[in-house]
Design brief:
Number of helices: 2
Helix content: 10-25%
Radius of gyration: 15 Å
Shape: globular
Strand content: 25-35%
Distance between the termini: 23 Å
Order of helices and strands: HEEEHEEEE
Length: 153
Amino acid sequence: MTEMPANGNGPGDAVLQYHLDDEQYEILVETVAGERAVGVALWEESISDELGERPSPETRALFDLDLYLENSVLLALYGTSIYTDPESDPLRGWQQTGRIVQAEIREGIWLDEIATTEEEELVLILSRNHRPRLYFNVSGWTVEEWESLPGEQ
């Protein structure tokens, strides 16, 4: 496993990233590219709610989530829109989106590609057999380690 970058003083002190520059790209490629997703925690609220009126759970299109990877890396993703096709509208609804992401993880999905938008926002492409299944357009993120999945003790 690639050694995690030291970007804080202890657990939970990871630096929140907003722009995917060359250095952050290399760190993500070395740390998470090609890793299998093994769990997700989709939060009911999002950091993006602070920018305006909080949407209802049924209309939510921006999500905060924790994506757990097989190599014990946790990607905490903030203000994330999730797509099944980059040419379509983002998924909507907290429960509906959660069901879709959970189903893809159960069936086996890998973080296949790291990309960026024109605004230097992070895009994670999750694939099965190198066929894209989900696209996460991420406004902010941290890279941390995890010891147990949600619900495990």
